[in-house]
Each structure stands twice: as C-alpha cells, then as structure tokens.
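haha ok so turns out i had the wrong file open the whole time. this is the CORRECT one, sorry everyone. sequence first:
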Amino acid sequence: MGQLGIDWRLLLSQAVNFFLLLFILRLFVYKPLVNVLKERRQKIEEGLAKAEEAEERLHEVDEIGRQKIKAAEGEAAEIKGAEARIKLRKAEADQALDAQAAKLIRSALVRVVEISPEAIDEAMITRALKEVKQGL
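then structure:
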C-alpha cells in the first residue's frame, strides 16, 4: 500500500477520527434531532385530531342551528296563520257590530222620530252609522 501512497497509520487515525465524529454526532445531534422531529410529528397529529374534533363540533352546531331555524320558521308560519285568523274574526266581529249598530240606530230613530220602521230610509241609517263610526 505504500506504493499507492497510502499510509496505514494515517488511514487508521482518520478512520478512528471518522468513527469518533460519527459517534459524537449521533449522540449529540442525531438523537436530539430525531426526538425533536418525533415531538413535532406528535404535535402535528394532535393538531390534526383537534381540527377533526373541531370540524365535528362545527357540523353539530350547524345542524342545531338548522333545526332552530326550521323551528323558528314553523313558529313564524303559525304566528302568521294566527294573525290571519284574528283579522278574519275581527272583520266578522266588525260586520256583526255594524249590523247590531244599524238595528240600534233604527230603533233609536223610530223612538225619536216616532214614525213606523218601514218609513225610515236605509240611507239615513247608513249615514248615521258612518257618523257613529267617525265619532269613535
């Protein structure tokens, strides 16, 4: 080997230095680096698990929101229907009140004027009813 320019002592010392450097790097750099990478991987996995859990919760909240909106729409429809029924009943009550008022006005006119009910003009009753409504 001497003819090739290789010195065994130098080669052996470089091999020892190489393996010593390899051992030191493995002990002080590689293992801590691997541990840091493991911790980072674990944190990433935890983050992904939490993200999935948050997404599931978000879907649950969305579903609850949809259900509440649906219930509110149903209640709104019921309220509108109730309002329509109230308006109808009010209109019926107004008609009944108008009819009753017309009878009372006719009766009052008969007593005041002292003429027969047949002679009282319907236009006069209608006009008196309008005046009573405006006065209220």
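The chain has a mean pLDDT of 87.
again sry for the mixup
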